[in-house]
Every structure is written in structure tokens, then in C-alpha cells.
Amino acid sequence: MKLRALLASTAILAGLAAPAMAHSIGTISVNDQDWGYVVQYCDTLSGLSVSDAFDKQPSISAELMTRGVTLSSISQSDCQKAGLI
Question: Which of the 8 DSSP states describes residue 68?
């Protein structure tokens, strides 16, 4: 009985210690910390024409803030498919 209790508590702790689930946009996996920047960047792209969105580059400060993803690699189409536009 003690072995079951030990295994059950270990399983619960392992579940709590698991990393947060990442979001996906296009082929890029984005962690929770950077997701807000991706949403803001997609919001910026939403008001642009397709050609303007293609030429749009994120600000240098936004690129520096997102360590896990390169915002310039995200297209307007990626934002649409992810449901952010």
C-alpha cells in the first residue's frame, strides 16, 4: 500500500513539474513567455495589406525580447491560420 501511495504522489508531482504547453504558429513552437509578443506582432500585421505585411519587420526591441522565436519568420498567413487575425 505504501508503494502505491509513493507512486501516486510521484506521478502527481511529475505532472505539476512538467513545463507549460507551448503554442504553435506556422511551424514554430512558441513558449508562453513569448506568446504575447507573437499576438502583438500578428495584431500589427492584421491591419496591413498582404504586400505590406510581407515587407513589415518587427521592431528591434520586440525581436530582442523574444528569445525563443524570431518574429520576422512569422507571416500574416501564419497568424490567420493560428486564429490570431
Answer: S
Helix (H, G, I), strand (E, B) or coil at 71: helix
Cβ atoms < 10 Å from Cβ of 24: 12
Is 25 in a helix, a strand, or coil?
strand
Is the pTM above the cut of 0.85? no
Residues in Cβ contact with 25 at an 8 Å cutoff, skipping those fewer than 6 apart: 38, 42, 74, 78, 79, 81, 82, 84
Helix, coil or strand: residue 38:
helix
Task: Find the length of the chain.
Answer: 85
CA distance 68 to 37: 11
Express each pLDDT in 30-75 by its tens digit.
999 999 999 999 999 998 998 998 888 888 888 888 888 889 899 9
Closest among 85, 47, 1, 29 to 9, alpha carbons compared: 1
